[in-house]
Design brief:
463 residues; alpha/beta; Rossmann fold; 6-stranded parallel beta sheet; 15 strands; 15% strand; globular; binds uridine-5'-diphosphate
Amino acid sequence: MSTPQPSHIALFPSAGMGHLMPFLRLAAMLAKQDSIVTVITAQPTVSLAESEHISSFLRYNPKINHLELQLAPSFRQADSPPVDPFFLQMHLINQSINLLPPLLSSSSPPFSAIFVDFLVVAKVAPIAKTLDLPIYILSTTSVAFDSLTAYLPMLASNPAEFNKTSAEIKIPGLSPMAMSSLPPIFLDSSHLFTSTIITNSQALSEAKGILMNTFEWFQASTLVALNKDRVTKSLPPILPIGPLEPYHDPHDDNGDQYRSWLENQPVESVVYISFGNRTAMSRDQMHELEKGLEKTEWRFFWVLKTSTVDKDDKEDAEHFLNEAFLEKTKNKGLVIKGWVEQQEILGHPAIGGFLSHCGWNSVMEAALRGVPMLAWPQHGDQRVNAQVMEEAGLGLWERNWDWGPNGIVKGEEIEKKIVELMTDEKLRGRAKKVREEARNAVGRDGSSDKVLREVVESLIIPF
Ligand code: UDP
């Protein structure tokens, strides 16, 4: 009698750690569920963090296979205007997708499905169709932001109503969204990022489902709206499978330093501060943050990023910060420049709050550990994510704080909000409730666990 064949799933992320991380997490989860897993990554990567993570992930997960999509070189002229390196990478990946079919068709055992980033679905879908391969999207953002991107083609086709003067936008089935929460580049449909989003939104119906790094409880009403076809017709099922489980990654050069520091801090006494991988603040804003941190009596652990791409991030933290600040705060604060193991830090008992840009992975990591957040969105999906996070009861969001580069938030305001974050006991209680719900969702037979198992089981070849 023949036995069922395990599914063989290809995972194909787009550019940046915020995209790579959820794909690697899902790869590890699928491998644990006995699927055969192959991760396809673009080569070269933009950031060192990506290449180092891919190597160490594969080293510690030897059962997971790896294929590389060699990117065509960029044909940009030396004098052409600068483009965000991550947008350029996303573009190059799309330009190189013609190299994907040989990678997919030569695999043994043959693939049973491909899970792709939203930013490549339009180009991958016809290839998957030819190979008779079911395609799923793994979303790297909130359901609310996904609703916005799904609806963007409709918005962009109506410039009379979708323009700078609009106060808010209305997406069927969702509460109105403030125009100030949208990334300003969404108003320019010729922008590389916006046009890529529009193209891919129009291809959403090609996917069998959209896997979301979220859980039902956290975004219940938006999930219902999307799944009932209220946002747009012909969307595939939206499948919450998160928070995606972190995997242990021993690659961490700075680890010893901050681990021993954290061990010596009292329970819930430290504000962890990080704005993701690629958010470099202006020097003026950094100095205001210093003032706020110096003034507050709370301890802090600040992970500093000073350039968009880590390969250019060469100077020490001391080079960017005031000497007097470092001296005055040396007994209550730690500043680290470079990569830290965020999910582990958020799980440390000393951490009592998280000042964050609200990248979606960070929100889900805080949810899984019940750490109250103070949102300070800097760009992209982060304002929409901040609202979702606030509405779910996980934290605070000061709407008056402008996007990163647009205005300076003063040190006194930052200090005031940090005190609120660290002393609001009701908020701490709500955050713990979020943690409980998140754990239930990913636990055995929880809502997210069941959804992922059903997807995987549907891909198993019966004999
Ligand atoms: N991250 C980390 N260490 C760092 C910076 C980032 O572990 O020093 C991780 C973080 O835990 C999250 C991801 O990188 O999983 C960043 O994704 P997110 O969506 O939060 O923000 P992005 O960097 O994409 O804006």
